[in-house]
Amino acid sequence: MPLLRWRLAFEAMVELVVPSWDRTQDVAYRVRSLGDAWRSGVHLSPGGPALSVDGETLTYRELDERARSIAAAIQQIDPTGSPVAVLAQRSLDAYLGVLGAVLAGRTYVPLHPDFPPQRSAGMLRRSGAATVVVGPEADEAAQAVFAAVDRPAALVFPTRSAPGWASLAAAGLPVVGADLPSPGEAQPETTRTDSIGYLLFTSGSTGEPKGVGVTQANVSAYLTHVVTAYGYGPGDRCSQMFDLTFDLSVHDLFVTWMSGACLCVPSKRSVLAPGAYIRNEGLTAWFSVPSVAMVMDRLRMLKAGAFPGLRLSLFCGEALSAGLAEKWAMASPNSELHNLYGPTEATIAITAYEWAPGAVASGVVPIGRPFPGHEVAVVDASGIDVGESGRGELCLAGPQVTPGYWEDAERTGASFVELPGSTQRWYRTGDVVERSEHQGLRYLGRIDDQIQIMGFRVELVEIDAALRHALGTELAVAVPYPPGPSAEGVYAFAAGSDHHGDEAGALALCRDRLPPYMVPKRVFFVDQLPLNSNGKIDRGALRPVLEELLGA
Amino acid sequence: MPDLGPSVRAFVVETLAQRAAQLGFDGLEFDGSFDFFESGLLDSLGLITLIDAVETQFDLEMDLTGMDPEAFTTVDGLVRSLIPETA
Lengths: 552, 87
Known about the structure:
Chain A: Residues 46-406 form the AMP-dependent synthetase/ligase domain. The structure holds 2 protein chains of 2 kinds. By secondary structure, chain A is α/β, with parallel strands linked by helices. Chain A has 3 domains: 32-47 and 57-215, Rossmann fold (3-Layer(aba) Sandwich), CATH 3.40.50.980; 266-446, Rossmann fold (3-Layer(aba) Sandwich); 450-549, GMP Synthetase, Chain A, domain 3, CATH 3.30.300.30. Chain A contains 16 helices and 27 strands. In chain A, strand 13, helix 12 (322-331) and strand 14 form a beta-alpha-beta unit. The longest helix of chain A is centred in the N-terminal third of the chain and has 18 residues, at 60-77. The two termini of chain B are 15 Å apart. The A-B interface holds A 114, 267-277, 279-280, 291-292, 295, 298-301, 303, 306, 454, 488-489, 503-508, 511, 516-517, 522 and B 21-24, 37-38, 40, 43-45, 47-48, 51, 62-70, 73.
């Protein structure tokens, strides 16, 4: 039993090596920060593999030395303690950037090289980051971002000399490349449990991404539960499927590292359909959105017994269909399968359901019960619990619920509330669920226009805004396909545009503002759009029109 | 069995060119090393749609079980993966 074995190992070293480490009655061990989680792995498995990326494997000791050297650079460049942005993707630099920021005691802010530069520049500005770590794969993106942002930042290049453009972008601020300080120069980080460990931006309904800051205490509660509950330990080889801008990546990195396991990073292309990668890398623990499994299934990669090495499979981020779960389980005959659920605002995931063959006949797999220490309420519009049999909006309370939206008291006040008859602080998820006696919670949909595209959380209103800007008309609207809360993409309808018929031009403008997964697949120009009784465009009425157009 | 390679390649290139025109991607050259994923022209679902179209058009059923997408996101790579005997 790996769970018992590693629990004993943890307990043996717990008080010896990590001063802030603590034991309580109901958990065997716990960490207080992301830095603690990293040090746990270093002590559990110093000579073991910590990271497999780009054909290279680094041990905990090697990665620790290099990360502490980045941490020292960050501390020397900016002693004020500002957040650190990481503009890198699936490279050694990306992981050195995150770890360097964490070990320097800073909030890390992931930026995506494939996102429009304007969007990343906005995130950089709003985060207040004074230092940016740049990977070689992001050189082009970095130059575009710095051209769009009005103030310079200090730059760190973890694995190479600074490229020529750096001194221009930094405009007199420090640029550190080949001349990194030694690991010994890093000062031990001082992080308070209420300090922000990472800051992410999600799609916002006003057309601007909104920031969610997650505290060290929030993420520590998650890690402490998950590492124990799923028996992670040294010897595990864990997938790193999620991009760093997606909060589920925090599970990948820090669950793996807290348990002394190896983080296995598939390349950007391998991520598309990682069947061969799972086998070639000898993965034991899997975590992805269901869409990845769906793509693998459509490419006929989910053959029975295809992945005998997997012992654990977790899915999260969007609805998992019963049929897909069944296929994944057939392909991974030695693996447990759990369906996780959780919004970024409540830290990575907060409920789980253990799937068993035949337990879910059809439809979607339930999202189960909350993690220990958390409470759920299912409420109506006035915040009153609907009781055991009703359906309503899911509200969450407990140690993983974050302080709220970054520098946005108004939105925070609207979503983080007190409920009638309770003194706790609750997060209103906007997700509609019902309770079931044996399976916990079942996910039904959204109360608003938020959807998931391949697991990415998207406000349709934000796509509408970009479309309307691109087409120069208010008569444009995005419609997800297939219908429902989990879509493969969106299509656009437009009427009365000055640019009528210029599909290519409209889509090019959308690409300047939206990340790739939010850009409509097509624009259909129509004579008029259906309106509802309030005179607003009736998105729902366009769904059958779209299905007909797509020949579904 | 006739060598399907050239006709599959022509079909793939034509499909990519149509998609590029629709999306407003300018200045792409669809030679053998053109990477339709790196260029942002197709995402994972675009790739599935393309492979479905090739299968339907040429009445093939591909086995990609052991394949890593590293090998099939270019025109040459895809044609080689779909029709191994042309490799």
